[in-house]
Protein: Cytidylate kinase
Amino acid sequence: MRKVIIALDGHSSCGKSTTAKRVAAKLGYAFIDTGAMYRAVSLYFHENHVTSTNPKEVEKALNEIHISFQFNEQRGASDVYLNGLNVESEIRKMYVSEMVSEVSAITAVRKAMVAQQQQMAKHGGVIMDGRDIGTKVFPDAEVKIFMTADPVIRAERRQKELLDKGELVDLDEIIENLKKRDIIDSTREEGPLVQAEDAVLMDTSFMTLEEQVNFVIELHQNVLERL
Ligand code: DC
Structure:
């Protein structure tokens, strides 16, 4: 079977990672969660008191940041490592979510991450989830999907995710965070969140996980048949 690139972009918390993880397992593809990379950079900025408005500090930090992924058998997906340390659980916390949109809007940060993402998926056989994969990272990706969902449903899903990890956060606080992130992500200059012209829209508000996975698998199959 020919291996291609699946670009899965869209709003926060509409099921991109969960869907991508399942699709990757079914197709034997690698799954790369690019949001985790921006979250790891944010965590580094937080821990090292990097002033994100100071280009010199940002440049220095980027030279010191090494991000990698390692498959975790238990989770059935890759964990993200920041300078050799597993930060998969830390980067999902609310304080990281609060700062990640600002950090990921910095041009130097995006350039460094995009270059690494292009390197990681250059041989295909990858499903990559993010905001700018189909527009900027892999504009020639064979399969492009843009995912969205009702903001309240997205917030409820995020609340459950956080609760499963032991963090209880008020629903209104999550809705605010998602709205704020949507605005920053969609209006930034570099690599904004926008549906690629040739991406297929998938609204997951009332879709089960199985339906989402089948949607992507079928689209991938149709594309392969036409190649
Ligand atoms: O997918 P996520 O919610 O974990 O992503 C966290 C943040 O990272 C999100 O608010 C925007 C940013 N991001 C980005 O700017 N570009 C990407 N390709 C992926 C994520």
The mean pLDDT is 96. The chain has nine helices and eight strands. Residues 12, 34-35, 38-39, 100-101, 104, 130-132, 181, 185 surround 2'-deoxycytidine-5'-monophosphate (CB under 6 Å).
